[in-house]
């Protein structure tokens, strides 16, 4: 019988499909057995009364990154990865952000070095692409995709990052050819700009007007627009941080009509409303994110969309800006809603909140929680089968949850460097008491044990939406060919002529 380095015994293991009694045997960094009645390993964890779940994967978080407004976040790869681990997340995928005028290759190389030196858990990163010149798209982006960075984000708003529709078409065509997943921040920039300008001119500067200016139709219009553009090439797109019913309805309708569109939401849209921003002075800035918090009806629609499969992932969108002049309040108490850094912390609280409010309150099953917190992330972003399930052959990334353990969330009890939490005083039930990263017990009953740089870069394979590619329509083949500069003779071989295209 094999000698295990580590065993987790007497617990309930959950996958995205089932919950079952099993012990888990680990050798080195891998799971080598999942079965009943395993003998104790060199180290043995008693999981009686606990759930043995795949470590969470957070595929949308901002770490050691400058925002769309040019503001540096407070967390580096060390503090962010420690906070993630305490919250049951064993892989993070933040963003190497290309701001306008910068080389994508340089941005990616610099970011890789920061991550390698500091992360305590395994990681990858997406790119944020803000330039669409030949060097960026055809050289640097292609090189990054081929080394396993198989997804990237584009913005339809934020002046320093946004791309226009023409550029979006270049990006989508490239993604179709290279089989990379495009994540889209979908908000109509001009609607936000126009409403903001009028609000400021009329003296409405308080944080709560952020929500007014990022009106839900700005989100649904941009969501619809990028979905339509993606249909030109029949290329998958994933709409990140979906916040409202209109955008959800747009995504759901497009899915029913066969568009390859996927979606993500975040705990703050499920649990908070825009009323949180209506506080004295600039206090409401703590709750400012884009898209903004909405209302109770939006929350209900989002929970339903997680159940129905319209949305595939729940990510933190951790955006760590301190409540001071370095982040939320660049002009102190005189900061207007237009000047506040956008985003909220959430790496450590993502899974406990989703577990407490989702599983323990009966809004989702345990397998659904596993899917939304880990398995779907692994599949959507090319990390499966290496991660995302407690199964033989997978990396030993595991969180052992006590479903009854109660924690009152406070900023001082969390491990990021933000200094506040939007959930101060909120009681959650259920917490990951033991967290294992690649076979190492890194969190055990509140104690942390991992060195900076001990996390590994995980090259990612082709995202799931490209793995079972369907036959392309003649129209999609034509426009994909057109993006590559194919001649009309070449197009004729696809059975799609220039004349047809004139209709
Ligand atoms: O407000 C947010 N979400 N800030 C983070 C940046 C982004 O667009 O995701
Ligand atoms: Zn965004
Ligand atoms: Zn984000």
TrEMBL record:
<feature type="modified residue" description="N6-carboxylysine">
    <location>
        <position position="153"/>
    </location>
</feature>
<protein>
    <submittedName>
        <fullName>D-hydantoinase</fullName>
    </submittedName>
</protein>
<dbReference type="InterPro" id="IPR006680">
    <property type="entry name" value="Amidohydro-rel"/>
</dbReference>
<keyword id="KW-0479">Metal-binding</keyword>
<dbReference type="InterPro" id="IPR032466">
    <property type="entry name" value="Metal_Hydrolase"/>
</dbReference>
<keyword id="KW-0378">Hydrolase</keyword>
<dbReference type="InterPro" id="IPR011059">
    <property type="entry name" value="Metal-dep_hydrolase_composite"/>
</dbReference>
<dbReference type="GO" id="GO:0005829">
    <property type="term" value="C:cytosol"/>
</dbReference>
<dbReference type="InterPro" id="IPR011778">
    <property type="entry name" value="Hydantoinase/dihydroPyrase"/>
</dbReference>
<dbReference type="GO" id="GO:0016812">
    <property type="term" value="F:hydrolase activity, acting on carbon-nitrogen (but not peptide) bonds, in cyclic amides"/>
</dbReference>
<dbReference type="Pfam" id="PF01979">
    <property type="entry name" value="Amidohydro_1"/>
</dbReference>
<comment type="similarity">
    <text>Belongs to the metallo-dependent hydrolases superfamily. Hydantoinase/dihydropyrimidinase family.</text>
</comment>
<dbReference type="GO" id="GO:0046872">
    <property type="term" value="F:metal ion binding"/>
</dbReference>
<dbReference type="InterPro" id="IPR050378">
    <property type="entry name" value="Metallo-dep_Hydrolases_sf"/>
</dbReference>
<feature type="domain" description="Amidohydrolase-related">
    <location>
        <begin position="51"/>
        <end position="441"/>
    </location>
</feature>
């Amino acid at each position: 019988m094999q000698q295990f380095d580590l065993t987790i015994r007497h617990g309930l293991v959950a996958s995205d499909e089932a919950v079952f009694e099993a012990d888990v045997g680990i050798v080195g960094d891998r799971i080598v057995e999942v079965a009943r009645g395993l003998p104790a390993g060199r180290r043995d964890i008693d999981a009686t009364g606990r759930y043995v779940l795949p470590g969470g994967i957070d595929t949308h978080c901002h770490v050691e990154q400058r925002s769309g407004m040019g503001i540096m976040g407070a967390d580096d790869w060390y503090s962010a990865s420690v906070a993630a681990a305490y919250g049951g997340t064993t892989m993070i995928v933040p963003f190497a952000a290309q701001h306008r005028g910068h080389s994508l290759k340089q941005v990616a190389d610099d970011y890789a070095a920061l991550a390698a030196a500091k992360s305590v858990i395994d990681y990858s990163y997406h790119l944020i692409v803000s330039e669409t010149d030949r060097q960026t798209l055809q050289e640097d982006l292609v090189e990054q995709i081929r080394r396993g960075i198989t997804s990237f984000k584009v913005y339809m708003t934020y002046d320093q990052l946004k791309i226009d529709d023409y550029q979006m078409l270049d990006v989508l065509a490239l993604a179709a050819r290279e089989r990379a997943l495009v994540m889209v921040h979908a908000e109509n920039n001009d609607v936000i700009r126009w409403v903001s300008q009028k609000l400021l001119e009329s003296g409405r500067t308080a944080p709560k007007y952020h929500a007014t200016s990022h009106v839900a139709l700005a989100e649904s219009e941009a969501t619809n627009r990028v979905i339509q553009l993606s249909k030109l090439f029949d290329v998958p797109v994933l709409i990140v941080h979906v916040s409202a019913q209109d955008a959800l309805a747009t995504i759901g309708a497009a899915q029913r009509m066969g568009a390859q569109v996927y979606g993500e939401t975040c705990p703050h849209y499920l649990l908070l409303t825009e009323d949180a921003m209506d506080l004295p002075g600039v206090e409401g800035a703590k709750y400012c994110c884009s898209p903004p918090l909405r209302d109770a009806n939006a929350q209900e629609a989002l929970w339903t969309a997680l159940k129905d499969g319209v949305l595939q992932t729940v990510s933190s969108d951790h955006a760590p800006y301190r409540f001071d002049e370095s982040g939320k309040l660049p002009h102190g108490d005189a900061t207007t809603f237009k000047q506040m850094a956008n985003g909220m912390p959430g790496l450590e609280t993502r899974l406990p909140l989703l577990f407490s409010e989702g599983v323990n309150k009966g809004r989702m099953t345990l397998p659904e929680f596993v899917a939304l917190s880990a398995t779907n992330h692994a599949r959507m972003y090319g990390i499966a089968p290496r991660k995302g399930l407690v199964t033989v052959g997978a990396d030993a990334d595991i969180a052992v949850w006590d479903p009854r353990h109660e924690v009152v969330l406070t900023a001082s009890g969390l491990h990021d460097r933000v200094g506040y939490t939007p959930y101060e005083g909120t009681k959650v039930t259920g917490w990951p008491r033991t967290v294992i990263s690649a076979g190492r017990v890194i969190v055990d009953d509140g104690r942390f044990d991992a060195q900076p740089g001990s996390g590994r870069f995980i090259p990612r394979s082709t995202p799931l939406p490209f793995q079972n590619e369907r036959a392309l329509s003649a129209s999609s083949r034509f426009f994909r060919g057109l993006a590559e500069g194919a001649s009309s003779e070449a197009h004729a071989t696809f059975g799609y002529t220039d004349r047809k295209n004139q209709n």
